[in-house]
Design brief:
Layout: H1 5-19, H2 35-45, H3 50-63, H4 67-72, H5 75-82, H6 89-104, H7 113-117, H8 124-135, H9 144-153, H10 164-175, H11 181-194, H12 213-217, E1 234-243, E2 249-253, E3 264-265, H13 275-279, E4 291-300, E5 305-314, E6 324-327, H14 339-351, H15 353-356
Parallel strand pairs: 1-5
Antiparallel strand pairs: 2-3, 2-6, 4-5
Helix pairs in contact: 1-11, 2-3, 2-8, 8-11, 9-10, 9-11
The chain binds a DNA duplex (10 and 10 nucleotides) through helix 6 and helix 8.
DNA sequence: ATCCTGTAAG
DNA sequence: CTTACAGGAT
């Protein structure tokens, strides 16, 4: 370590006290934040940017002001409010966690990393983040930002994720015995988010620039290195926009486990690997006169890309369809519809302005 | 290995 | 426009 750790800690904490960003879930300087707010924001911020989370966080605390309120909510309503944020397992775990905290912890979050780790949806990162930010416990939260800062500060050449253990140890060294664990956690991440950015890091603004190994070697922008990832497969299928005489269209709750579990969707075929085979797939609804709109929706998941051909149809004889719900453009927000489906719906309404009116 | 979406870069 | 990337838990 080039300088005593103590000095680096002071530099980072001083920098943070001057550049601390205002966020809806962040308490004012020197004020203890509400653990419920810290937890809710941290769950939302998993795999999601600050800007995206903002409005969702506001919506949630307005609707469910405490963890006990959230525990009493129906999962369906939580999913509806979550719709668009992605990774819906987070919402299911969020609800489970709220129920556990309300019922088994009298509505109070555990204050230790070990206690927090027991709860659904709280992994090593989130447990450390909540313990330090909400309760000022000396825990080190290593997120993607911290990984980047540490990789560069020590010029770690080993690629992620192989370097994770090394990064964790070095992050712990930098954080060891610092006087303000909550601020330190936030400062560490904030440095990565605003200064030590993935591309074009602003080294001139960095409180640690003088001691940064990557900067001295001129490789800051090349770090952290990452192991090459296999290229994603593409899957194909069809989605169906079935409208009725009232201008409503058909959705239904998705069955099965995993992907979009418990969310609503337009009727869709299976999603398969072969484009040609997908073109021959039969419709999942028995409606005559279906026709291809000649448009596609594209959507990208973590492990595959998806291309769905859009088909439209009209239900002229009030067909009864099991588990189906007819909805109009006005009450789309009352259902947990993922972005993929909203994209498809929007395309259909734009493609058929007469029918959306 | 499985789970989504928004944004920046090319 | 198309592609690449960021971002943790189970």
């Amino acid at each position: 370590m080039p300088k005593p750790v103590k000095h680096l800690q002071t530099q980072l904490l001083d920098w943070f006290s001057r550049h601390r960003r205002v966020m809806p879930w962040r308490a004012a300087k020197g004020v203890r934040p509400d653990p419920y707010h810290v937890w809710l924001s941290e769950i939302m911020l998993q795999q999601t940017t600050v800007v995206t989370v903002g409005p969702y966080f506001m919506k949630f605390i307005a609707k469910w002001p405490t963890v006990k309120h959230l525990a009493k909510a129906k999962l369906d309503d939580v999913l509806t409010a979550w719709a668009g944020l992605g990774y819906y397992a987070r919402a299911r775990n969020l609800h489970k966690c709220a129920v556990t905290v309300a019922n088994e912890h009298a509505g109070k979050f555990p204050e230790t990393v070990e206690g927090l780790r027991e709860l659904p949806g709280i992994g090593p990162y989130t447990a450390a983040a909540i313990a330090s930010i909400a309760f000022d416990r000396p825990a080190v939260a290593v997120d993607g930002n911290v990984e980047r800062v540490v990789s560069r500060f020590f010029a770690i050449e080993e690629p992620l994720p192989l370097s994770k253990d090394d990064i964790r140890r070095k992050a712990a060294r930098l954080a060891k015995d610092n006087p303000h664990p909550g601020d330190f956690t936030q400062a560490f991440m904030e440095l990565g988010a605003t200064v030590c950015t993935p591309r074009k890091p602003k080294c001139s603004l960095c409180p640690w620039a003088a001691d940064c190994a990557a900067r001295k070697k001129g490789v800051a922008e090349d770090l952290p290195r990452k192991v090459e990832k296999a290229q994603k497969p593409v899957r194909y299928g069809k989605v169906y926009y079935i409208s009725n005489r009232r201008g409503e269209f058909l959705i239904h709750k998705r069955t099965g486990q995993g992907l979009y579990e418990g969310l609503y969707q337009l009727p869709t075929t299976e999603w398969i690997d072969s484009r040609t085979a997908a073109r021959k797939l039969a419709a999942p609804v028995r409606i005559t006169g279906l026709e291809s709109l000649g448009a596609e929706v594209r959507h990208s998941f973590t492990h595959f890309d998806l291309i769905l051909e859009i088909w439209i149809g009209r239900d002229t004889k009030n067909t009864r369809l099991a588990h189906a719900v007819w909805i109009s453009a006005d009450n789309i927000d009352e259902y947990a519809l993922p972005t993929l489906m909203k994209k498809a719906i929007r395309l259909c309404m734009n493609g058929n302005p007469a029918k959306s009116a």
